[in-house]
Structures are given as C-alpha cells and as structure tokens.
Amino acid sequence: MIYDQPRFLPGGDEALFVEFGDEISPKLNRRVRNLKLAIEKQRIPGIIESVPTYRSLLIYFEPLQVHPKELREILFRLSQQPLESELSKPRLIEIPTVYGGEYGPDLEFVAAHNKLSVNEVIQIHTGTPYLIYMIGFLPGFPYLGGMSAKIAAPRLDTPRTRIPAGSVGIAGTQTGIYPAESPGGWRLIGRTPLKVFDPTREPPALFQAGDYLKFVSVTPYEFIQIGEAVVRETYAVKESPMS
C-alpha cells in the first residue's frame, strides 16, 4: 500500500522518518528517491544527511538549526512536488559473475530447493535487470528488487564467518553483492571480480540507489582476466542508460 500522504515518525531527538507506504515497489521507492533529490537541491539548513530505504527516507538534522515541526512542514511541501526528471534516467550496470563451484557454493542447494537445474537458476538470475532500492548493511551493499520467486532460497541456519568480497547471494526473494569480506547468512551462488566499493575511489560505490544491475555469466577464466584488469585499473565497467 502506498500512502496518500507521507507519514512522519521521530527517530530520536535528531532524526525523522518520512514513510511513503508499507510495500516494496518501484513506484514507492521512486517517491523516496525524489524527496532525497529535492532535499539535496534545496540545501536546507540543519539537515545533516538523508538515507533512503525501501519505503522511507531517514533524515538526520541539527535541532538547534531547524525545529522538528518546521522540518516536517518543509519535507511535506517537497514531497508534494512533481517527480524530478533526473530520476527517469537510471543506469544499467553489467555485473560479470562466475556461478557455482568455489565461487558459488550454494548454487546447487538453490537449484535443488527450487527443483531446478543449475543452468536454469543461472538463466533466471541473469535474465532480468534488478532495481537498486537502497544501499545498506555494508558500504556499497545493494538491496535489489525484482528477483524471481522461482529461485528464492532461505538464509543459512548458521551464517558464515567469512564471505569473500564480490560474492553474489540470495536470501528469500532478494539478491545482492557483498562489497567486502564479511560474515553473512545469504546463500552464495556466484562471485563478481568487480570492486563494487572502493573507499579510495570517487565516488566509492560503483552504483547508487535507483540504478539497475544486470548479472552476466562469465567463465572462471574470464573471471580471472577481468579481476586482473580491475587491479590494473584498465577494466571499463559496462553501463548504459536504462530504457
């Protein structure tokens, strides 16, 4: 459900949630990102940061510079503006991914769980572009929407303590990429050689909320070749306007 009017909820003394609905959908998330863009353009005194989620925008502010009531009035007014044209031009970014084996140790489980072959899982996973609803959990970790329920899989009962950077995982009907080595409980089906988050790069994240990702299956040999090019900084990430 998408609300007719945004709802404002306190997030402590210095934060405010602006909720637009209680579902996960591109239309609702577009309203979230539209408000974030409007805030950035207005440069409202007192706002420190805005953090988008699936269905809401979290605003951090300095209460000595802007009163919560005044901030709610400003945000409500901005939320009523027409959608920004910038939001209609997302990027489609290709993510080369090697599936299965040591790179995706849970691929066979995902296939068996859904009564599919390994190749069918790969075909389904690579068969659609995924909208990035938000970045979270780890810097540069994309929460993606649009994965087929045909390859959904439960989280691990016991999370792994170390997951390699670039690992592509599935949890429920979500899929995502681990940007750095970390613990995690998602089912790992593959890995990308791309460095999706690099704190020395500007911008550090390879993508942002509102972009789309398209997984492209590559061989282990291609994985190594692309990885070496990434290290040499000679690999050109493939991206195009999303139609």
Structure description:
The protein starts with a strand and ends with a strand. The strands form three sheets. Strands 5, 6, 7, 9, 10, 12, 13 and 14 form an eight-stranded mixed beta sheet that branches. The protein has a four-stranded antiparallel beta sheet with strand order 1-2-4-3, covered by helices on one side. It has a two-stranded antiparallel sheet with strand order 8-11. The model has no long low-confidence stretch (mean pLDDT 92). 23% of the residues lie in helices and 32% in strands. The chain has 243 residues and is an alpha+beta fold.
Distinctive features:
243 residues; alpha+beta; Gyrase A, domain 2; Cyclophilin; 2 domains; eight-stranded mixed beta sheet; four-stranded antiparallel beta sheet; 5 helices; 14 strands
Rg, alpha carbons = 19 Å
State which percent range the strand residues make up.
25-35%
The total beta strand count reads 14
Number of domains: 2
Q: Tell me the helix content.
A: 10-25%
How many helical stretches? Answer: 5
Oligomer classification: single chain
Which homologous superfamily in CATH is the superfamily of the largest domain?
Answer: Cyclophilin-like
How is the main sheet built? 8 strands, mixed
CATH class of the largest domain: Mainly Beta
Going by helix content, strand content and strand pairing, the class is: alpha+beta
